Amino acid sequence: MNTKIGKLLEEGAVEGFMAYKTVHGDLMPWFFTKDNLAELEHWRQTPARYPILKLLLAVARRNPEATYGILVRGCEERGLEELYKWNQLQRDKVIVLGQACSPELASYCECSKPFPDRLDFGEAPAGIMESRRVQELRSMANGTRSDWWLSHFNRCIRCHGCRDVCPVCFCTECSLQHTELIPGEKLPPDTSFHLVRAIHMGGRCIDCGLCEEVCPARIPLRALYKEVNRLVGEIFDYHAGTGGDGRSPFTFLGEELLLPQGAR
Amino acid sequence: MEDNGFEPRILAFLCNWCSYAGADLAGVSRLQYPPNIRVIRVMCSGSVSPHHLLHALQQGADGVLVAGCHIGDCHYLKGNYMTLKRVTFVEGLLGFAGGDPERLRLEWISAAEGPKFAEVVNDFTDRIRSLGPAPSFEAVPLVRAGVAIETVAAR
What we know:
Oligomer: heterodimer
Largest sheet of chain B: 4 strands, parallel
Low-confidence stretches of chain B: 147-155
Number of strands of chain B: 4
Number of helices of chain B: 5
Shape of chain B: globular
Strand content of chain A: 5-15%
Structural class of chain B: alpha/beta
Helix content of chain B: 25-40%
Distance between the termini of chain A: 57 Å
Distance between the termini of chain B: 49 Å
Order of helices and strands of chain A: HEEHEHEHHHHHHH
Order of helices and strands of chain B: EHEHEHEHH
CATH topology of chain B: Rossmann fold
Structural class of chain A: alpha/beta
Mean pLDDT of chain B: 87
């Protein structure tokens, strides 16, 4: 890590690099520039995950002309793809180095692709394709599933943590704070709070699982977003986080031929 | 009327250019349809956000009808493409969240299809009546629900 990132910074290929540094024994996200090159460390595997894309986005928004570098995991690489597609970052203004997750982390996250396409550090572990929770939910009857969800939603303390940590939540005005849509004074908030967020995650969620990780009420949000993403994949054949020119089906009108079936 | 006295409340989003005129035609043609629908006129069915659909269900609507122009007839050329995409998606989401996707209905009704409008409203009202009142969508706090707060496993 030391040499690769150091080289990029010394050559002036990037103005800053978002990577990690040990603080009190733990790796923390750290923004490196030419001035703190000496603080760069050797790469090591860590189970700690941070909304590093959010940090990069904040830096890039302040200085849109500059090129920045970032050290990404598999999920963060998918997030970058989405941010490019949604015009939040420019592809040619971001230089990416990739790190693989450990097999333990991959199995903990139930991550389908725990390594980035561009792999600089570590070895790619095998992906895990099935989520136990989604399988469990699918096997429930409709009424039970509704109760199951409500029993989780009722713990929500409306901290907006899921939104704040989400790497692909970049709006400056948020529907979740629209008091006419979702009454503001209620706690727990209306179920539509979670469903509105789920709608926004359709064709956008890159399945990093940070929302669930950060949720103080431990609401199994990821299962919900996994499912909306599966729906978008099934109905529109669009898979969030994949490279290429494809865009979320909700961002353009499209062609008649590509509309979902079932003309009424 | 049914014995249980349940009268569904159905919210209908009607496109200004077709379905609303279709409803008008049903009216002037003296076609009978149940008075259970509450109509909101929108400029295009494509302007109905998924948020509105969820909000309606959350506020206690037993069914939500979205009616717009047939594909290809949209006043704004392709607005109803978005309607179709969204409603299909929201139906799937409702199903997964434990709601009933049947409470949401999308229909294409042109300005000339007064009889179809009456038929759709009849049919949908019957369907919702047989489904019964929409189950509460409310997340009740644990304390109020009288449920012991169990420790939630890490995963």
